[in-house]
């Protein structure tokens, strides 16, 4: 369970997140949607305590992330695909992270197996494709067998087989009663995995709804999504004036 | 994918992650990148190579009376610290700036949200590794330097007053520079910027003092790390206008402590 209340984050004069409140429930996959620049990544960073909100609070299971007793065992996160030293092997990367939360070597082998990385485990991570990097990031998120998972754009760089794998993995994790939050700017992608939706634009909450409810609004899910986010895209093609002849 | 392997009963409610866990992570990180081994190699080559170059070419018969009076076989053998301090300064900076450069720092903070604890663990592991390597190389380069020094030039022995202290402090000095660099790296975050700052403090500040006249050089210069190393820590024959070995060592420890405290505060306050 993640509870965000009145989150505000400013970067200079720009408001990245503007009085944002939402709940993420356990036992289901929640999609975190919005156009590029909507504030999804900033919000996820605030949930993890990486960025300090200018106002508001966010709690995970009733606690501030910074106060967690075993952070990796409580929350698993994938924030960017290449959050590792390029010269370190996948196994060394995971073993080091695991040590910080007293997680045994056996679990490192397990997450390498879950993510299909056994054969690449001793290769230098800097040589990995984006898809392999993504799998390593997911392996790190799973290390502590956490009850809460936060994944920023998890399908990024995965091939079709990898996308199907991550969808099934996330659904299975949610079915075990875990809280799973995945961000994306593609409604069609999220709809394949998530049941619950949090839609934001320009840092504000546009809707907290379900895939089923949203798809019943318009002719298609995408139409309904565009209806929601209209007017809140940062880079809108239609906002460039077109004066007839070129 | 089998869901059975998803849960392995790693759930643990007792206790809390602490310094030992985080230090173990930092030890695993430090030894699993090649740059650590390369820097150790450069450090060893610099310490021993320069000791051989410096003392192997001492020609006692052609030295003036003043040169002979100032000759300090221990101190002159530690000219390699000029390279050694830079090598460990780079290592200290990299311990944190490589994490900011790659994005690893966010994975680290997601595992260890208490950033002050993280920096303390990094400092402890870095300090222990560089101190151990520094002492080994200080004794090795001192012994090799004395071996290549030809008689009738006077030789130093560990039993002579001040010699053992000078060798021990020569080994501790690059470790203190590594800790100062770690603190700077926590503030600056960029590898190139942090290494530039280390080079600036070690090599550029003494040059800036040169045109300011001897009185300023003598009063300010004795507080600069490299001058402390040359004139206070490794000197067996006292050098005029310099801090005593104990005072110089204390000043360097204070620099390292200040750099780490400021680094810890900045690391905790700024967004990652």
Could you characterize what this model shows?
The complex is a heterodimer of chains A (246) and B (272). Chain A is an alpha/beta fold. Chain A is built from nine helices and nine strands. Chain A has a six-stranded mixed sheet with strand order 5-6-7-3-8-9, with helices on both faces. In chain A, a hairpin with a 2-residue loop joins strand 1 and strand 2. Chain A is globular. About 2% of the residues of chain A have low confidence. Chain B is mainly α. Chain B has one domain. Chain B is 71% helix and 0% strand. In chain B, helix 4 runs antiparallel to helix 8 and helix 7 packs parallel to helix 11. The longest helix of chain B is centred in the middle third of the chain and has 34 residues. The radius of gyration of chain B is 22 Å and the shape is elongated. Chain B starts with 18 loop residues before the first helix and ends with a helix. At the A-B interface, helix 2, helix 3, helix 4 and helix 6 of A face helix 1, helix 4 and helix 5 of B.
Which SSEs are present, and which pair or pack?
The complex is a heterodimer of chains A (246) and B (272).
Chain A: E1 2-11, E2 14-24, E3 28-33, H1 40-47, E4 55-60, H2 71-74, E5 75-78, H3 90-100, H4 105-114, H5 130-142, E6 148-152, H6 160-175, E7 179-184, H7 187-191, E8 196-201, E9 204-210, H8 211-215, H9 221-229
Parallel strand pairs in A: 3-7, 3-8, 5-6, 6-7
Antiparallel strand pairs in A: 1-2, 1-4, 8-9
Helix pairs in contact in A: 3-4, 4-5
Chain B: H1 19-31, H2 34-56, H3 65-70, H4 81-102, H5 104-111, H6 115-148, H7 163-188, H8 191-209, H9 214-221, H10 225-233, H11 245-269
Helix pairs in contact in B: 1-6, 2-4, 2-6, 4-5, 4-7, 4-8, 6-7, 6-11, 7-8, 7-11, 10-11
